[in-house]
Amino acid sequence: MDNKKLIHDTVVATLAALNSQPKPQDCYKATEARLYAYSTLRANIEQYKLDIRDLKAERVTEKSKDITCWGGASSRLTPEEKQQARIMAVEVKLARDQAEVAKINRILDRLEISEGTDAVDIIRQAYFSACLWMILRCMKVYRSRPSSAGARA
Questions:
Q1: How far apart (Å, rounded) are the C-alpha atoms in residues 121 and 100?
Q2: Can you give 48-96 as a three-state secondary structure string?
Q3: End-to-end CA gap in the chain
Q4: SS3 129
């Protein structure tokens, strides 16, 4: 009786482990989404650096004229603590995006070593080039428009 239960539990655990692993299609989609997001992440990093610099240079006032409430009713933070919390929130976003960009760069470096510069150049042109993105977008719009020959008939 114990052997049957052990076998059953092992089968259930194995099936659960196999089902939790990502499928190849999911990995492909996730990789492609990361590559398409690369340019946006780099732009965000620059913007976050500017935001942090501005927040550090900003004069802290006692009362805010904004509608937004930064502190809860139960905790009273000084204006300096509130400002520091805003800076920390932007720094967290900055670190997250820098880590993602670093991961993509490491992968591209490995690919360049194994496959050569041509493979990496193709990826950079296909995913990082805004020019290509605009061309593809225009092609999609052009294809979706009805043809002028069909409109005359």
A1: 20
A2: HHHHHHHHHHCCCCCCCCCCCCCCCCCCCCCHHHHHHHHHHHHHHHHHH
A3: 79
A4: coil
Query: Are 96 and 57 a contacting pair, CB within 8 Å?
Result: no
Q: Which of 125, 54, 60 is nearest to 90 (CA)?
A: 54
Per-run averaged pLDDT (10 residues), the chain, 153 residues: 73 71 72 88 93 88 60 69 88 93 93 88 80 59 53 46
Are 119 and 112 within 8 A, CB to CB?
A: yes
Instruction: Record the tokens describing residue 80, joined without a space.
Output: 């300096």
User: Structure pTM?
Assistant: 0.61
| Contact predicate 108/127, CB 8 Å | no
